[in-house]
């Protein structure tokens, strides 16, 4: 009887032990197949492949790890390192950003920010930084506004990218399909948002981008309304220097409106309209303001151009001023009017003069035609005399000048249409 009881107990113990072994084996299998465990095995394999510099195979294994566990911070970091090793910087940044968005990991955010900013620093040092680097700095700041080094880089890029120390062309449409101005507007929109959240940090940066710090800043007039809106918003947020550029834009708008009818007449070859135009009081005031150096905001020299394509803002001793762009390598001309802005007297009478250059193709410059109408004192040429007295007579001179590669041919009509006309070219 006792022997039977001992045998029964042995069977029970053996069965229990077997159950424990089976349970342990089941737990091992279960643990072995947990997503985190399976992902870890993949990650360990990927690290070995990275050590062997087999980056293509490592990329595949890292990708497999993420397909098992999309919340694996280690997998996102490893895949980013793999992309960087292959020179695929953009993909490395994209995977770190995605990893942060999926996991909310501060580690991935720090890695993303550091990788972005290191790349921008390299490009700045190489002299190859462009608008994309400014956008990258903003990506970092929008994710983590506390990154002071990103703010500093934004300030550096303002000088290196928007202005090269001499001029800025980011506001100028230099060719069809150039999206520089649209991207610039997008950058300013993001800076407005950051400034509204933290004026103390971002207002100085906004000022550098809204009022570009270059001696010459070119603006296509097709972009003038949008740029004016940017300046108005910047001024409302505290950018005081915007007022100088806005004053230039107001003056440009006034000047363009004043000369618009003259452009229409010249384009219709109604050159006689210039006779009244260059002798009216408004034109004389413009001419005299340049001669006396009292013209506000509008800068010019001997013959001051008025064009319809673009202007350039200039930093001068008087503050911001502007002039119209007459550089056909920067803006294809559709017509230019030039104002005589220097003192040029005939027997004490100041000349009034205007030149017109019709639209032309810069690639096919010759033959190149220009027109000049001058209201002047004909006594300078000894034309107007009588038997008893020398008479000062004001008349118009019209000249058509045709330039070729060999030189210039002038078609002159003396005293053209004047009240005291005495001679015409035969």
Walk me through what this model shows.
- The structure is a single chain.
- The protein has helices at 2-32, 35-51, 55-68, 73-85, 89-103, 106-126, 131-143, 148-162, 180-197, 199-210, 224-237, 242-267, 273-277, 281-291, and strands at 167-171, 216-220, 303-307, 310-316, 319-324, 336-340, 345-346, 349-350, 352-357, 368-377, 394-404, 407-413.
- A hairpin with a 2-residue loop joins β4 (310-316) and β5 (319-324).
- The protein is built from 14 helices and twelve strands.
- It is α+β, with helices and mostly antiparallel strands and 426 residues long.
- It folds into three domains: 1-33; 132-240; 252-413, no CATH class.
- Helices cover 53% and strands 17% of the residues.
Strand order of the largest sheet: 3-6-9-10-11-12
The major beta sheet can be summarized as: 6 strands, antiparallel
- Tally of helical segments: 14
Query: In total, how many beta strands?
Result: 12
Q: Could you tell me the strand content as a percent range? A: 15-25%
Work out the helicity level.
Answer: 40-55%
How many separate structural domains? 3
**SSE series:** HHHHHHHHEHHEHHHHEEEEEEEEEE
Structural class: alpha+beta
Q: Rounded to an integer, what's the Rg over CA atoms?
A: 38 Å
Average predicted confidence as pLDDT: 86
Give unreliable regions as ranges.
16-32, 382-388, 422-426
| Shape, principal axes of CA atoms | elongated
Termini distance?
Answer: 154 Å
């Amino acid at each position: 009887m006792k022997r039977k009881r001992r045998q029964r107990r042995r069977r029970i113990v053996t069965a229990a032990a077997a159950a424990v072994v089976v349970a342990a084996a089941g737990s091992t299998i279960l643990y072995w197949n947990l997503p985190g465990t399976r992902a870890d095995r993949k990650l360990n394999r990927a690290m070995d492949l990275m050590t062997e510099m087999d980056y293509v195979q490592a990329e595949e294994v890292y990708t497999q790890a993420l397909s098992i566990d999309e919340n694996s911070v280690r997998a996102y970091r490893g895949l980013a390192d793999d992309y960087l090793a292959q020179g695929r910087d953009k993909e490395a940044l994209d995977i770190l950003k995605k990893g942060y968005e999926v996991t909310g990991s501060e580690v991935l955010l720090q890695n993303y920010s550091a990788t972005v900013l290191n790349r921008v620093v390299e490009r700045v040092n190489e002299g190859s930084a462009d608008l994309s680097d400014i956008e990258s700095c903003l990506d970092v700041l929008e994710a983590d506004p506390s990154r002071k080094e990103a703010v500093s880089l934004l300030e550096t890029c303002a000088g290196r990218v928007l202005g090269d120390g001499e001029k800025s062309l980011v506001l100028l449409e230099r060719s069809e399909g150039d999206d520089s101005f649209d991207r610039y507007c997008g950058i300013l929109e993001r800076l407005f948002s950051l400034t509204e959240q933290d004026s103390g940090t971002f207002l100085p940066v906004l000022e550098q981008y809204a009022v570009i710090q270059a001696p010459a800043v070119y603006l296509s007039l097709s972009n003038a309304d949008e740029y004016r809106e940017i300046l108005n918003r910047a001024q409302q947020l505290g950018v005081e220097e915007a007022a100088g550029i806005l004053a230039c834009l107001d003056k440009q708008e006034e000047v363009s409106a004043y000369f618009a009818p003259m452009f229409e007449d010249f384009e219709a070859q109604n050159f006689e309209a210039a006779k009244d135009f260059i002798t009216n009081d408004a034109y004389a005031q413009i001419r005299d303001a340049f001669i006396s150096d009292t013209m506000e905001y509008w800068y010019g020299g001997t013959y001051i151009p008025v064009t319809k394509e673009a202007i350039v803002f200039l930093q001068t001793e008087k503050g911001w001023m502007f002039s119209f762009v007459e550089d056909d390598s920067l803006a294809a001309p559709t017509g230019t009017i030039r104002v005589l802005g220097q003192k040029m007297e005939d027997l004490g009478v100041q000349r009034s003069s205007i030149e017109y250059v019709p639209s032309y193709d810069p690639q096919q410059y010759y033959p190149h035609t220009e027109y000049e109408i001058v209201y002047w004192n004909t006594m300078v040429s000894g034309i107007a005399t009588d038997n008893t007295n020398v008479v000062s007579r004001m008349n118009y001179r019209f000249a058509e000048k045709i330039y070729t590669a060999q030189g210039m041919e002038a078609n002159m009509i003396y005293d053209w249409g004047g009240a005291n006309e005495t001679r015409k070219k035969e």
